[in-house]
Every structure is written in C-alpha cells, then in structure tokens.
Amino acid sequence: MISTERLDLLPLRVEHAAEMAEVLADPALHTFIGGAPLSPQALLSRYERLAAGSPDPAEQWLNWVISLRAEGRLVGTVQATIADRTAEIAWVVGTPWQGRGIASEAARGLVGWLTTQPVDTAVAHVHPDHHASAAVATSAGLSATGIRHDGEVRWQRPLH
Predict the structure, then answer these.
(1) How many angstroms separate the Cα of 112 from the Cα of each of 3, 47, 54, 119?
(2) What is the domain partition of the chain in residue ranges?
(3) pTM metric for this prediction
(4) What fold does the segment set 2-158 form as a domain?
C-alpha cells in the first residue's frame, strides 16, 4: 500500500472490480484513450488477468486502486508497468472525483514510491489535447518530450 495525505493506493484485487466498474462507467473517461467502459463482468476478467501478473518475466505489472479515505470509497486507479528499469505509468480518476487533485496526488505518491525501487525512469504517455492529464504529469515531476507514440506525447522523469 502507498499512502498520501488523502489517499491509500491499494494493490488491485479481483474483489475491487464491482466497485470500480461503477467508478469507471462514464464514457467520457475514454475520450482521450479510446474504447468504452467495461461491464462489471469484463472488468472482473481484466482484473483477474492483471492480478495474475505479466506473462513476460522481464515485465512487471503493478496496479493499485485509489481509495479516498474521507469518503471510504474507491475513486480511480494508478498503474506502473516496469521493464528495463523504466516504469510506464498511468492514472484514471472517476468523473465525480475529478478536479480535486486526486490524480495528481496519486501520481505523486506512485512516482515517490518508484524512487525507492530499482527503476531509473518514469514515463507517461498523454494525449496532446488532454490538459488535465498533462497537469497530473507535471505535478508528478514528469516533463514533456518531443517524442510521440501512437499520437500521444511522451512525458518522463529520471528517478535516480
């Protein structure tokens, strides 16, 4: 578990799927990442795969749900996929909890934890029009690069 001022980042468990299906149900969350909200059953299947871990021993999948202590509920997710001493990170916060600094706080907590791990670089990919996500990346100490991947801007931060 990773704790911040208002949040607990709890290791993802299959049991989180039902509550998280509600948190992630707004189609607007997919504006910049594509796709559509998963049904509770589809999210359960996804969480089963994530909890089982990467089939590639050279890659580590780390996933957390974001618990907002004051409300006693889950409000989003953060993740890190680690390979070759680089952590690819991502975040999502449910629509009702956006605009409260939760994603920034969670991303800072995740990046802070990564500085204690054998990881040299944190990387995020942000759609160029997703200004809120760019603000989260900035808050976590990442800087935009001139590199694009699948239309998204690569942001990164050295960790050591």
Answers:
(1) 11, 24, 23, 11
(2) 2-158
(3) 0.95
(4) Aminopeptidase (3.40.630)
